[in-house]
Amino acid sequence: MGSNQLNKRKLGRSGLEITTVGFGAWAAGGGGWAYSWGPQDDAKSIASIRRAVERGANWIDTAAIYGIGHSEVVVRRALAEIPLSEQPYIFTKCGVVADPTKPYEPGYRSLKPESIRRELDASLKRLGVERIDLYQFHWPDEAGIPIEDSWAEMDRLVREGKVRAAGVSNFTVELLERAERIRHVDSLQPPFSLIRRNSGQDVIPWCAAHETGVIVYSPMQSGILTDTFGPDRVARFADDDWRKRSTEFQQPNLGANLMLRDALKPIASRHGVTVSAVALAWTLSWPGVTGAIVGARSPEQVDGWIQAGTLTLTDQDLTEIRAAIETSGAGTGPIEPVRTKTATR
Questions:
Q1: How far apart are CA 29 and CA 48, in angstroms?
Q2: Is residue 66 annotated as part of the catalytic site, yes or no?
Q3: CB atoms within 10 A of CB 159
Q4: Residue 338 belongs to some domain of the structure
Q5: What is the CATH number of the domain that holds 205?
Q6: Which of 66, 89, 135, 217 is catalytic?
């Protein structure tokens, strides 16, 4: 799909083979809701999706809660402009439900079987497709619904042909194991980056051992691990940009994070790529990781990270990155992918 050949990996046992980088449509939800990235022009979102597909990415990840359905609508509009022969896989998520009386405030996390089915039908309509290629639980339930009941409903949706592969996001090992006893978990979507590394300690190794694909989110730590990000950018965040509330964008974390980012520049220069591509390639170097979700608010941002889809870091690169993590003190979790021995801090 697309004119460029990005690296591909099998998504567990799902039968899907995906490019190692895919387009994340979180910001396409637009502004004004609880976890928005501030105002976003739909035309730029559509152009960004098209650019990612043109550059070879063969999947798009979105969610019903992004912009209270608006992201899925934007994805549908982008799909209408992409030739059938280049149509990407469509991944979306359920389980975060907006309160109809306060739709733009944080939703509640519900995996009631009837709610899952209702959300799926609404997503199919917004996306204009007959089947979701990968349908995922966005977060664990907080309404007291046993995961066994929720996952059994997901299994029914797969058997009915409405869903091709079934995954989860933000799950612990304990929840993964309970779901696995009901039906194989095709994929997990955990947060993972050079700064937020904890998933490399537990859920990613679990997935590798159980043939469950892993698609990591926020691999550039929501923009910090990009070439030009700095405190001035934080100062310009829109009032409704969720990052204003994140401790990673506040001192002292921000200083440590940017020190780590700067240490990637010599590696990027050696490979002739961006810092963003190096940060992404680091997540892709972990055993068990299938792909990384990467957002973009303009086609130019896509051009900045798409190189990660063909980049392989050397042992020297990984050693330098490990030293940079130790020196900067940024983040938490394991500091290098398994080679001979993985160290933690």
A1: 13
A2: yes
A3: 10
A4: no
A5: 3.20.20.100
A6: 66
**pLDDT of residue 201 exceeding 90:** yes
Question: What is residue 339's predicted lDDT score, i.e. its pLDDT?
Answer: 65
Q: How many domains does the chain have?
A: 1
Q: Residue with structure tokens 């021995």?
A: 341
Tokens linked to 110: 């519900």
What residue type is assigned to position 302 of the chain?
Answer: V
C-alpha count within 13 angstroms, C-beta hemisphere, residue 325: 23
Residue 344 above 80 pLDDT? no
The whole-number pLDDT of residue 244 equals 78
Lowest mean pLDDT among 21-30, 34-43, 87-96, 110-119: 34-43
What is the DSSP-derived secondary structure letter of residue 336?
A: S
What pLDDT, on the 0 to 100 scale, is given for residue 4?
Answer: 67
Residue 50 belongs to what domain range? 16-229+277-313
Residue 236 lies in a domain: no
- Interior/surface letters 27-66, b for 16+ CB within 10 angstroms, e for the rest: bbbbbebbbbbbebeeebbbbbbbbbbbbbbbbbbbbbbb
CA neighbor of 134 nearest in space, from 257, 293, 316, 258:
293
> Which alpha helices (DSSP H) does the chain contain, by range?
42-54, 70-79, 113-127, 147-159, 173-180, 203-209, 231-235, 253-263, 265-271, 275-284, 299-305, 315-328
Residue 345 lies in a domain: no
Could you tell me if residue 262 is inside a domain? no
pTM: 0.92
